[in-house]
Amino acid sequence: xxxxxxxxxxxxxxxxxxxxxxxxxxxxxxxxxxxxxxxxxxxxxxxxxxxxxxxxxxxxxxxxxxxxxxxxxxxxxxxxxxxxxxxxxxxxxxxxxxxxxxxxxxxxxxxxxxxxxxxxxxxxxxxxxxxxxxxxxxxxxxxxxxxxxxxxxxxxxxxxxxxxxxxxxxxxxxxxxxxxxxxxxxxxxxxxxxxxxxxxxxxxxxxxxxxxxxxxxxxxxxxxxxxxxxxxxxxxxxxxxxxxxxxxxxxxxxxxxxxxxxxxxxxxxxxxxxxxxxxxxxxxxxxxxxxxxxxxxxxxxxxxxxxxxxxxxxxxxxxxxxxxxxxxxxxxxxxxxxxxxxxxxxxxxxxxxxxxxxxxxxxxxxxxxxxxxxxxxxxxxxxxxxxxxxxxxxxxxxxxxxxxxxxxxxxxxxxxxxxxxxxxxxxxxxxxxxxxxxxxxxxxxxxxxxxxxxxxxxxxxxxxxxxxxxxxxxxxxxxxxxxxxxxxxxxxxxxxxxxxxxxxxxxxxxxxxxxxxxxxxxxxxxxxxxxxxxxxxxxxxxxxxxxxxxxxxxxxxxxxxxxxxxxxxxxxxxxxxxxxxxxxxxxxxxxxxxxxxxxxxxxxxxxxxxxxxxxxxxxxxxxxxxxxxxxxxxxxxxxxxxxxxxxxxxxxxxxxxxxxxxxxxxxxxxxxxxxxxxxxxxxxxxxxxxxxxxxxxxxxxxxxxxxxxxxxxxxxxxxxxxxxxxxxxxxxxxxxxxxxxxxxxxxxxxxxxxxxxxxxxxxxxxxxxxxxxxxxxxxxxxxxxxxxxxxxxxxxxxxxxxxxxxxxxxxxxxxxxxxxx
Length: 821
Known about the structure:
By secondary structure, this protein is mainly β. This is CBM-cenC domain-containing protein.
């Protein structure tokens, strides 16, 4: 898929308004035997002969240099050199232990014939411990290769041990870090499952056709699109009465059709121009297809090449989502589940009459997430509760609902009725609901997958969905009780966009996947040369990661939905341990009003740790709410969520001076209207663990405080393009300094949750590094002078490795920027 620059950015580059960065080189440069695991293989002698031997030292393989003569110089150079480009800056790193004397590391540049063009060193290193030696320089004209030289110079006498010699480019494209092979949407037709596999802005999604009997993919089709209306993925699929398969996508609200037996996917156009998601599709009579959209709550019909908006816009006053649809063909009525203030309506496609069916006690929910009309009953799913509803006609021609059953803790999808029963997963077990007797019966069967669609195939229930290791098909025979869950072979494996990144206690750079989840782990400067696939297999088992924190030797992971906090001990079991769920606390009707606690929480964008082991999590609430929370968890406690700033989300945290400091965003959860709290300004707050006191420090005209960090005992933060600094003992004396123009949060409102990062790196104690608004920069600690290091469209997030270099992301790709103090 080709992607063009956004019009505004392209124009700015053309007119010189933005500095175009030097293109990043692809993937890691790997010295073949940089760790001396194969002795001195690949290290050519230079200078005086001898001096070097391969040894084991301090439990690791190493190269030992014994320099006993002040008149000799000893060196070994990594040969052949690695490909290099003139004008690009390179940095070499090595671990060195000097028993006596000193040691030097050099970068050397050569032309295509091997002629030495020049070299550079970072200076001598000494010390009876493992230290990091560095050498950094820009390749001169004519450079074709770069190499590392480990060296003991004339005048030096001593013994040194060398290990882990690596080279990095100034700005390196490390490529795809995550892959996904699980479906988002599924429908069935003629013994086949049709499953949508989500892509990214750079990789088109695919449709897999899966033979249910053999559990194998028979064909894969790539979704066509254009640069003006790119297709990233899809949540909606249905099979029309003529057997055609229809698919609804995002972020372009397109409808696609596939005719089984053909090899094409047909782009039918945008269902609702200007809106982003088709959330659900349902087949109607005579080949018609009904659908619902976000973000203006439209209900539409596709019939014989024509899109028609049905009823009012939105179909329910105030609705942004038509999240789920069910259709009763006998009555030609459609049931619509909307949000973010939940409603459930029956729409008569003949008369246009709309009747509300949602029981009043569920009105505080955010939306009706799933609907099925089957067996003469309407099945409605709201926040893991499945309602079974009779739809009853009143004497005046209106309709109401009568609750037959309320089934809690159920997964989203449920089967079509067969033999008077509907099947679903509850508490991890396959269970059935008998429509006539209104009873639930559990089996002992655990499907162990997140089902995206069910079908009946020759009396056997079949469910397709996401397992811990990819796409799986679950089968169950009600007649015999036999069941199976098997991996589907040949499914698409597509890159996943990076949603969060952070450095683990093991020094690896961890990445969390957007939408489809998954976790990647990159070993700095030890990746391979293939930037189109991850270096290591994607770890499965977690949903979308929003934040990562290394604390007390563990990696803490904040996961959406329901603001789940996990802990992982590197080298331990995966998936990691769930410690706390912010979505399970609070009252669904609450929103931090007077006398209330917080509502259930959803998006954990901020994590911070305290010396006593407590982990703090800042969150955005569930759909349709404004008030985020400060979530507090410590080993041995159940954890809790507290209100800190009503009507604002908590999106930045830092621990300093014995207190927790937080930054808020006036952007509420998805589905609130207006998007930003009217008349509000973002705040900094403090929480005192000793007494639970919360103190607020409002900021003038700030939309969001998206970054906070401790720097030399002070707190630094970002509020849009403004730098905040204060002493944790006196936050009211906060200083502000404009660094950049404020970003246009109105145009991209979700960035008001996650726009900025600030951090420090040990090798440059004089600066604070940060990212905000498509740029990476550094700030002089003393003068607060700012230097912009990089400007690229789409730059987000920031972390640093053990070498002190920076990592950022653009879409599905991870990049490294070398820090040179």
